[in-house]
Amino acid sequence: MNKDILKAKLEKLANFKSAGIDPYPEKTNRSFTNNDALKKFSSIKKSIFLVGRIRSIREMGNVSFAHIQDETGKIQIFLSKENIGKEKYKFFIKNVDIGDFIEVKGNLFKTKSGEKTLKAENWKILSKALKPLPSEWYGFKDEDNKHRHRYLDILFNKEIKEIIKKKAVFWSAVREFHIKRGFLEVETPVLENTTGGADAKPFITHHNALDIDLYLRISAGELWQKRLMVAGFEKTFEIGRIFRNEGMSTEHLQDYTQCEAYSAYSNMEEMYKFLRDCYKFVAKKTFGTLKFNIRGFKVNLGKKWILIDYAAEIKKQTKIDIWRATDKEIAKRLNELKMEFDANNKERMIDSLWKYSRKKIAGPAILINHPKRISPLAKADKKNPDIVKRFQFIIAGSEIGQGYSELNDPIDQRERFEAQQKLRDQGDEEAQMLDLEFVEALEYGMPPTAGHGFSERLFSFLANKSIKECQTFPLTKQKGK
């Protein structure tokens, strides 16, 4: 910022203080929002108080016009020496700038051009801004700088403001759908001794009082909510922040909101029907439609959601039979497809084949019959023990939510955890940890249970924006680093 501009603003701030005026008062007398004043214009016959940030000032000698803006909208104000007094008018012109917040008392009237306006009888400073607002907002060229000044992006960009409002509607609708169907909203720990519920690399922090290292959770309480099933609860859900210390992309962030729910005496098929209906309910409530254009795909959530077999789809798109192919054959094909993979980890290689295959699926589709070796928390299929009762929703070439018939056999669960722990010991930082306390909980008995989980990625896809752009304050590097 220009040093002369800052000096001038500090002088104006000093003028308020010299005049005995608090430039940052606590209380206002606001009687209407700007939008309410405009809507109720004809019925308001007395003096009212309006507040807002000054967005424009036009001085015309003994009179001035300005616009003030609150969250609901802008309204024009008219100030004159005649109505507010010569000295108060002069002080306003000399010391008030675009960007300052003010309170104005006056009566509503229409100008000759027909604009609804507040004729000021008095005014009061509410907050003196020390930095000037850009006269025309064109955005920061540097993405990090833009997100660092997100408040200005929101102030000048109506689209971003609408995204924030719609996201609030989105999560409110998710909550409404679950509560209406008998689910109890719960809170589970964010700090964990052993993290689980997903394949992801966790953040590590230190608890000073206990002098132990802890993990920030990577799921919205999956293993905790299952403990609640052991404890006798039958329907629970949580909407909360989760943390994954992984790469960033248009679909992935490290700090985001997720919903997870668990229902006793339910199975995978019942859960994917429930979640499918949830998506349609939430989409309609948030966006008013079930038809979307998402990343080059036309997606209609109202049409039939097709079932896709995991291995069959991979074979169809890559010519690899995951049940028969050797590690060498899979690695060769992944190289041909230019996919990143870990040649020492067959589970990750199979997952890479799937990630290639899903890119061409518009959806909505329901992926089923996942291999047991890549699904450590799902119940095995009795007809084919090599696959599990797991589903994933595919929309616009990406995974947008999943669920299981949850594994409740403690012996099987321990064996799968131990297999995951071996992968972790071999360097796979996303493999799940051996959680013996959770296994112990299962030993007391957990009823047949189905669960689901989805994140704000669903919102970003329906909005057809990157997930970072849909966050209110995306994480950025500190300035200068």
Keywords:
single chain; 481 residues; alpha+beta; OB fold (Dihydrolipoamide Acetyltransferase, E2P); BirA Bifunctional Protein, domain 2; 2 domains; 8-stranded mixed β-sheet; 5-stranded mixed barrel; 15 helices; 25% strand; elongated
**Secondary-structure-derived class:** alpha+beta
How many individual β-strands?
18
The geometry reads as elongated
In CATH, the homologous superfamily of the largest domain goes by the name Bira Bifunctional Protein, Domain 2
CATH topology of the largest domain: BirA Bifunctional Protein, domain 2
Question: Would you give an account of this structure?
Answer:
It is a single chain. With 481 residues, the protein is of the alpha+beta class. It has 2 domains: 3-127, Nucleic acid-binding proteins (OB fold (Dihydrolipoamide Acetyltransferase, E2P), Beta Barrel), CATH 2.40.50.140; 151-305 and 363-463, BirA Bifunctional Protein, domain 2 (2-Layer Sandwich). It is built from 15 helices and 18 strands. An 8-stranded mixed β-sheet has the order 6-10-11-18-17-16-15-14, with helices on both faces. A hairpin with a 4-residue loop joins β8 and β9. α6 packs across α7. The longest helix has 23 residues, at 158-180. The protein is elongated. The two termini are 20 Å apart. The model has no long low-confidence stretch (mean pLDDT 92).
